[in-house]
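Re: that chain you flagged

S.,

Sorry for the slow reply, it's been a week of failed gels. I finally had a moment to sit down with the sequence you sent. For the record, here it is as I used it:
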Amino acid sequence: RPQRRPAPARSDGPGPQATGGVAGRVGVRLDPRERRLLRIAAAALGRPQQTLLRAAVHRYFSELARTELQACVCFRRRLAEPRETTGARGVPPTD
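Prediction finished late last night. Pasting the structure tokens below so you have them in one place:
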């Protein structure tokens, strides 16, 4: 079995504005069923898993803005802002 390198530390640190426009990284733990479903969906749609996860997060944020965070002006204002035009390392987002 090949030796695995330790994963880099993950952070929920400052957002793109605070880091000069560079997108942050977030780790998501999926159970085996969720991981399998993500792989199947990505393969069936011919899209990267990252694209599917980002779309799901954006949909969830939109739902929060209409429900639990309806009264949170700050959240709704941030959600309405245009998305960053570049991702990590200056690369355009994949979705």
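What I noticed first: DSSP finds three helices and no strands in the chain.

Talk soon,
D.
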